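Incident log, support desk, overnight shift.

02:14 A customer reports that sequence design results differ from what the structure should imply. Their input is reproduced verbatim below. On-call engineer (initials T.W.) acknowledged and began investigating.
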């Protein structure tokens, strides 16, 4: 799967998803909050702890480190070899961000 295919699939499920650039990286946003991004041939996803730990058990998946020595604690980087997992992980990431947005609106 390519990042364009991922975007098309996610956007088809939820037209409120937008694609834009941030720090030179293509990203997917829900209500202005990033939940997935493209990193070379890999995709990155913002996941809650349990899903992140499960994703890290997949071959080739690692914590996302955009700058040397600075891993992003909620993010994983998933190589294109695991592209069959991208849509599932994007849906989990979107749900995670939606939950956080809902909590912000209640506060």
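02:41 Re-run completed on a clean worker. Output:
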């Amino acid at each position: 799967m390519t990042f364009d295919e991922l975007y098309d699939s996610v956007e088809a499920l939820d037209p409120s998803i937008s694609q834009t650039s941030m720090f030179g990286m293509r990203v997917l946003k829900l209500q202005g909050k990033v939940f997935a991004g493209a990193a070379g041939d890999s995709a990155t996803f913002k996941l809650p702890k349990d899903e992140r730990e499960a994703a890290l058990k997949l071959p080739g998946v690692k914590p996302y480190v955009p700058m040397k020595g600075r891993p992003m604690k909620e993010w994983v980087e998933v190589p294109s070899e695991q592209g069959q997992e991208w849509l599932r992980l994007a849906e989990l990431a979107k749900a995670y961000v939606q939950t956080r947005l809902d909590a912000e609106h209640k506060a």
